[in-house]
Amino acid sequence: MLKKTKSGVLALCATALIAAPLSAHADAAKDLQVAGRALTFLENGPTGKATLGVVFDPSKPASVAEKNAVMAAIGGGLSAGALTLTGKPVEAGDVAGVSGVAALYITTGVNAGPVGAAAKGKKIITIGSDMGCVTSGACVMSVSADPKVEIVVSRSAAAAVGAVFKAAFRMMIREV
Fold first, then answer.
1. Residue 163, C-beta contacts closer than 8 angstroms, at least 6 positions apart
2. What is the distance between the alpha carbons of residues 57 and 106, in angstroms, rounded to a whole number?
3. Under a CB-based contact definition with an 8 Å cutoff, are residues 56 and 89 in contact?
4. Is the pTM for the entire model greater than 0.85?
5. Crossing angle of helices 2-39/61-74, nearest 10°?
6. Alpha-carbon torsion angle 18, 21, 25, 31, nearest 10
7. How confident is the chain (176 residues) per 10-residue block, as mean pLDDT?
8. What strands, in cross-sheet order, belong to the sheet with 174-175?
9. Which of 20, 104, 134, 154 has the fewest CB atoms lying closer than 10 Å?
């Protein structure tokens, strides 16, 4: 009986270990789906195929892990309405020189202040899953799909990059 219990526990642990990375990817996929849809509510926003720069700090394992989850969720292209997002990893220190991106997704753990400032100078929308990024004004919007969809937009950051959202979208979000 003890052997059956041990093997059952081992099977459960193995399943949990296998499912853990998948659940992280699923959350990233949900958040990206929300972010992609939000981008479609921009006046003169991107359509068709657009590149999302995924900003990460290579010295922070959590940031690298989130970058990997986001890139895996995007895969060869993530469709969100009329928009298909492709991903491009961008080291936090390289944001000032980035080009060809419709928006930047800032991973957790990145020093968002300098990244947000560089993005504002280039008029690039910044998105993060960390609410602190929006409340600090470094991110234009924060998105979260779990436990419920929540989109928070920084008025000042949006104005700084010239982002204007359609009226229908503004009724679905919270602005700070």
1. 42, 125, 140
2. 9
3. yes
4. no
5. 70
6. 120
7. 40 33 56 91 91 97 95 93 94 95 95 95 92 93 89 95 90 88
8. 78-80, 83-91, 48-56, 103-106, 125-128, 141-144, 150-153, 174-175
9. 20
